[in-house]
Automatic annotation (TrEMBL):
Pfam families on file: Hydrolase (PF00702)
Keywords: Hydrolase, Metal-binding
InterPro entries linked: 2-HAD, HAD-like_sf, HAD-SF_hydro_IA, HAD_sf, S-2-haloacid_dehalogenase
Protein name: Haloacid dehalogenase type II
Amino acid sequence: MAIFKPKYITFDTYGTLINFDMAGAAERCFAQRVEPARMAAFTTDFARYRMDEVLGAWKPYYDVVSNALQRTCKKWGVAWDKADSDFIYTDCATWGPHPDVPAGLAKTAEEFPLVLLTNSMDNLITHHVPRLGAPVHMVITAEEVGAYKPQMKGFEYMLDKLNCGPEDILHVSSSLRYDLMTAHDLGIKNKVWVNRGHDFANPAFGYTEIKDIGGLPAVVGL
């Protein structure tokens, strides 16, 4: 089988490259208010409300987090305070990459320009890019686009900014719901799913599956 050589390799950032520990932050924040046996369900609802929050008009990511947290607390009958939203959002800036990321990304960057399409703020992503361990050609945030994934606007904006078509890129993500379903709908045929265990497999969306970024160089023949 011929190995695809894209003009650009584009990436989701949080969850795919950066260890997205929103559940851990919520656990630490609510440890005295949500009993351990219920915490996983609480943080799952928090994730689902965050997804719902990004489907409308753009707003700062702090508001996405805070609104989702308030809705989760209301559902669970748990007290919320602005300090809770502050704690979790502040924690975001401390996250680092998954252990497999720096080496796999650096090897891939030797031949291909790397582009980040991220549901982030301009001032938040600056904490994370230097920790990736590889040169990044371009960073496009939801703040710049004015929309969050899984909306199509970010992908369309990225293709326009790169002056290329869907056939020219390889998109890499650990999330089907935020990235790969939308990429599929936009005709991006070359996709990689990094199976980090937070989404269910669905081969109908036409991706190559790898377990971590260490497997990416082989996908593009390195």
